[in-house]
Design goal:
Layout (H helix, E strand, L loop, with lengths): L2 H11 L5 H24 L9 H23 L3 H5 L2 H16 L4 H22 L11 H14 L11 H7 L3 H15 L3 H4 L4 H4 L3 H18 L7 H12 L10
Length: about 250
C-alpha cells in the first residue's frame, strides 16, 4: 500500500471530532495513567480479602485494554480499537458483580476452572497424559475453604458464571442486551458487523463503554487503598459525560 492509499484508508476510518467524542476521549486519556499508577501502588501489597486478587488483576486487564484502545484511536484505527471493547466490558461486568456481591468471586473462578479443564484436559487426553480437574486439586480445596470461611458455605455455588450472570447480579441486563451483545458481533466476526452495517449505532458507544470500564477500574483500585488525588474530579466529569446522549458520528 502506497502513501496515498494509506492516507485514504486513514481518512475512511477516522471519526469527526464531535464534542462528546473529544471530551470522552480526553477523560479516558487521563484515566488510563491514573489507573496504571494505582496498579503500581498496589502491586505486591498483601491482600486481606479473598476477592482482592481478582479485583487487582481485573483492573489490570481493563487498563491494558484501555491503553491499547487509546493508542489505536490516536492512530485512527477505529475498527481495530473496537476489538478491545468487549474484553474490557466483560471484565467490567464481572468486576462490578463481585464488588456488589463478593461471594460471586467463587463462581467466577469455578467457571474459569471448568473452561481450563475443557482446554488443558482435552490436550492431555489427546496426548494420553494424566490430568486432574481443577476442582479436584488441593489448591482448589484450600480456596473453597477460604471462601466458605469468609462468605459462608451456603453462598458458594458450583455453577458457571457467564457475562449475563454478572450483569443480572447487578441489575444490568439492559446494558448486557444492548452493549455486550453488540460488541459480541465484532468479536465473533458476524457479517453484519464486519461489513460495517452496525457502525452507525456502535461508533459513538466505543469510547463511552471504555470510559465506563476505566472509571469502574479506578474506583475499585481507590477503594482498595490506591492513591488518586483527582478521583472526585474524574467522577464528576465521568457522570457529566455518560448522562448525556452522545453526538452522532459519521465516518469521514
Amino acid at each position: 500500500m502506497d502513501e496515498g492509499e494509506s492516507a485514504a484508508q486513514q481518512n475512511a476510518d477516522d471519526l469527526p471530532p464531535t464534542h462528546s467524542e473529544v471530551v470522552g476521549m480526553a477523560l479516558l486519556s487521563e484515566l488510563q495513567p491514573a489507573i496504571a499508577t494505582a496498579i503500581v501502588c498496589l502491586r505486591g501489597k498483601p491482600q486481606k480479602r479473598v476477592e482482592d486478587l481478582f479485583y487487582f488483576y481485573a483492573c489490570d486487564h481493563i487498563n491494558t485494554a484501555v491503553d491499547g484502545f487509546i493508542i489505536l484511536r490516536r492512530d485512527h484505527r477505529i475498527d481495530g480499537a473496537r476489538l478491545l471493547v468487549r474484553p474490557a466490558l466483560e471484565t467490567m461486568l464481572r468486576l462490578m458483580a463481585v464488588c456488589a456481591k463478593p461471594h460471586l468471586v467463587y463462581r467466577v473462578l469455578f467457571d474459569e476452572a471448568g473452561e481450563h479443564d475443557k482446554w488443558i484436559g482435552a490436550v492431555a487426553k489427546r496426548h494420553d497424559e494424566p490430568y486432574t480437574p481443577v476442582i479436584d486439586r488441593d489448591e482448589w480445596r484450600k480456596f473453597k475453604a477460604t471462601c466458605a470461611s469468609q462468605f459462608g458455605a451456603d453462598k458458594l455455588m458450583d455453577a458457571p458464571f457467564s457475562a449475563y450472570d454478572a450483569a443480572a447480579a447487578i441489575g444490568a441486563e439492559a446494558y448486557y442486551d444492548s452493549r455486550y451483545r453488540a460488541y459480541c458481533q465484532y468479536t465473533h466476526g458476524a457479517l453484519e458487523a464486519v461489513s460495517g452495517n452496525l457502525d452507525e449505532p456502535i461508533d459513538p458507544e466505543d469510547s463511552r463503554v471504555m470510559l465506563t470500564s476505566a472509571m469502574t477500574a479506578l474506583d475499585v483500585l481507590v477503594d482498595m487503598g490506591a492513591d488518586c488525588p483527582n478521583i472526585e474530579s474524574f467522577r464528576a466529569r465521568f457522570l457529566a459525560i455518560v448522562k448525556e446522549a452522545p453526538d452522532e458520528l459519521e465516518r469521514q
